[in-house]
Amino acid sequence: MPHPGWSTFSFEGIGTQWEISTPDSLVPAVRREVLETVAAYDKTWSRFRPDSLVSGLSRGPGIITLPEHAVALQKLYSVLYRLSDGAMTPLIGSSLERLGYDAGYALVPSGNPLAPPRWEDVLDWTGTDLAAKEPVVLDVGAAGKGQLVDLLGEILLATDHTDFLVDGSGDMLHAGSHPVTVALEHPYNPRQAIGTVELNNSALCASASNRRTWGDGLHHVLDGTTGEPIHTTVATWAMAASALVADGLATALFMLEPARLEEEFDFSWLSVSSSGVAAFSTGFEGRLFT
Asked: What is the rounded distance in angstroms from the CA atom of residue 94 to the CA atom of residue 101?
């Protein structure tokens, strides 16, 4: 929770609720820049709006030029795609649509689960240049919200806000001399917490299969090698220097053993299995309730 007496700027963006907490209120120009950045990110990446930059690729092959922030996003996705042998992929959108999580929110599967195409077969993504050889449904939701958290943090730092908490519905970035204690949402009851953790000049992101569910056993965390929902894990948290990395790793923890990720990333983590067992890294200095 932000500190008592801090000012909070609340708004909606990319389909979710946001809060930016600072000791002093954000002036209108900063608020405007924040909202414009959120709107631009949605206009670039949303697969739910027909006028987004990436949605054109779902209608046919083509080449697009992405904003500069796509460089870091591509780098993270390429590493996680390699480590997971394709289980985590930016092409998962077609599998989500097949299961009913489409632009119209049909929430009714149109067929059995189907794996998306392999990245190396249909997509050439180098930095800001992206070319699709056939129609593809891009979905960077596994790390995109975290990156947007970082982009808003950059705006705050550039406008001399050195103490802040950016909270994009549970994906958080903290900066400053006043650490905050964050509740860890119970995977089966959003009104309860399973513990707390202190956030101190770092990012904390969560992924939970209960956040977007529909139908019998259907949720939004899919295995890119099968197109099927993952049921062995129900909730994960990752803490890292950036929200981009923390968000991507929180999703990757559904698909990979933490030790494999620890070989290439500096982060701490907590994971709750479908049997209710919690596991965590030595660096995740939180308090779990019994």
From this structure: 9
